[in-house]
Amino acid sequence: MQGNTPNGSVATEATTAALSTRHAETMAQLNRTVAQAEDLLRALGDESGQAIDAMRERVSATLQDARSRLAGQATHARQVATDSMTRADAYVHENPWRAVAIGVGLGALAAMLLSSSRHTRNSMHGSALE
Fold first, then answer.
1. At residue 19, does pLDDT exceed 60?
2. φ, ψ for residue 48 (rounded to 5)?
3. pLDDT tens, residue by residue, 32-60
4. Within a 10 A sphere around the Cβ of 37, how many other Cβ atoms?
């Protein structure tokens, strides 16, 4: 299993991050396409004519395709999230003490950063009062 080795875990996290970024970009692009198609349909309103009707049909088809893609992307995103959670759960079950150590380390790091930030902020306010 790839997630059991430290290098495999990093590679999996990098792959998941890349997929997440690509997914977000795709979703944003599809949302823009849907919004533009809906705006165009509203702009066409009740206009009539052969060219307008043909354009309305093309825009409607594009809009339906974009909505279908959005639904597919949402399903894919759920599957990627579920797979990632399953891998993380398996890793924690296979390496409980390592997972605890990682959690403690991250907690200590967060505490140090917050403490440092608070100390810096208090120092700045103290020097302003002098």
1. yes
2. -130, 170
3. 877 887 787 777 777 777 777 787 788 88
4. 20
State the residue range of the domain holding 108: 95-130
Contact 70, 31 (CB under 8 A): yes
**Same domain for 42 and 78?**
yes
Same domain, 9 and 54: yes
Predicted TM-score (pTM) of this structure: 0.41
52 and 81 in a single domain? The answer is yes
Same-domain pairing of 69 and 30: yes
Question: How many domains does the chain divide into?
Answer: 2
Residue 62 and residue 90 share a domain: yes
Q: What is the DSSP string of the chain?
A: -GGGSHHHHHHHHHHHHHHHHHHHHHHHHHHHHHHHHHHHHHHHTT--SHHHHHHHHHHHHHHHHHHHHHHHHHHHHHHHHHHHHHHHHHHHHH-HHHHHHHHHHHHHHHHHHHHHHHHHHHHHHHHHH-
End-to-end CA distance of the chain: 60
